[in-house]
Amino acid sequence: MEQLPVFSFQSLVSGKFTSNYEKYISDQFMARDLWIGVKSDADRVLGKKESNGVYLSKDGFLIQKFSPPAAEDLKEKVRAINSFDKATPALRKFVMLVPTAVRVLDNKLPDYVADNDELMYTDKVKKSLRGDIGFLNLYPTLSSKKEEYIFYRTDHHWTSRGAYYGYLALSEQMGFTPKEEAYFNIAKVTEDFYGSLYSKSGFKHLHPDSIELFTPKEKAAYKVEYVDGHQNTDSDSLYEMDNIRKKDKYTVFLNGNHPLVNITTGNPGGRKLLVVKDSYANCFIPFLAPHFSEIYVVDLRFYEKSLNTLIFDNQINDMLLLYNVTTFFEDPSIKNISEGI
Fold first, then answer.
1. Where are the beta strands (DSSP E) in the chain?
2. Mean pLDDT, residues 74-90 taken together
3. Residues 19 and 166 both lie in one domain
4. For strand 271-277 and strand 318-324, is the pairing parallel, antiparallel, or unpaired?
5. Residue 236 phi, psi dihedral angles, 5° rounding
6. How many domains does the chain have?
7. Do residues 150 and 22 both lie within one domain?
């Protein structure tokens, strides 16, 4: 194992210290991952079903543990959303908090895991929001499909199929006609995806996931602009296929997370949509593209400008706030939604 290098002014100037220190840090992380894996294997032999907040569940599923939010923190987030709503009365708003696998796939959890309060806290959010905000409860929809492949086994995201069912439910509430499955080519682009929970837990010897893409059978002319600070990148696809060869293959959807993504679909006379989101929206947004002329995608973890200005300057009609329940409860950046109003 690489040893911590000895510092000297001469080694710093020559660059040797920096190079050796980088090797040391890299080695420590590799050793850490190895240690987590060894420890998880030992725990597994001893019958333990939890590691680093992740349950080793039935049928090879890794499911993230639910942690209840602090009461005051949750109130602050709801207050920020309500303040934003009050300041933008012309904007139609919808909130989708996607239940996670720990609630939907409760039949796969280890037998000792008690019922969690994920739905109770989600209901608190619904009851606390202003009445003109549409709230979508996806639990009945996803629970009815729990025997299908709607969550990855080794990753915390829902799959494209799970997102498709969410899209069908949202279409009913937003008032547009959804595309049937026959509209799409549905194809697996990889069968070798090990996700975030695989890395976090250290549980090994599990089957990898597959990733499916739902792409229109008729080629759509999309322009996708990724706005990252002062550097913009353009694409003609909602998918970054090169990322299938990377470790985090989920970034095939919208090339991962960015402060702002502008999507122009070419749909004439369509409405304009703002999506404020976490990464659960990345595989969801392609389903929305046929129904809007433009979609503006904002990740508040990285976006530092005023949403109100973005809405006004681009004459946006509708807004969808889409998070998975865990991220919504844990991410403090949601409180920034009302900044600049």
1. 50-51, 54-56, 62-64, 92-98, 134-136, 184-193, 209-216, 223-228, 231-235, 260-264, 271-277, 292-298, 318-324
2. 97
3. no
4. parallel
5. -110, 15
6. 2
7. no
Average pLDDT for 242-246:
97
Query: Which residue in this structure is represented by tokens 């309060």?
Result: 117
Within a domain: 315: yes
Domain of residue 258, residue span: 68-180+219-338
- Do 126 and 12 lie in one domain? The reply is no
Contact present, 295 and 275 (Cβ < 8 Å): yes
β-bridge partners, 54 = 51, 64
In a domain, 197, yes or no: no
Residue 56 domain-assigned? Answer: no
Task: Enter the DSSP assignment of 3.
Answer: P
How is 168-210 classified by DSSP, letter by letter?
Answer: HHHHHHHT-PPPPGGGEEEEEEEEEE--HHHHHH---S-PPEE
Looking at the structure, tell me whether residues 120 and 260 fall in a common domain: yes
In a domain, residue 10? The reply is yes
Q: Return d(Cα 148, Cα 161) in angstroms, integer.
A: 8
Q: Which of 259, 253, 254 is nearest to 232 (CA)?
A: 259
Residues 278 and 249 in one domain: yes
Residue identified by tokens 């904007």 is 91
Cut 0.90: pTM above it? no
Task: State pLDDT tens for residues 314-339.
Answer: 999 999 999 999 999 999 999 999 98
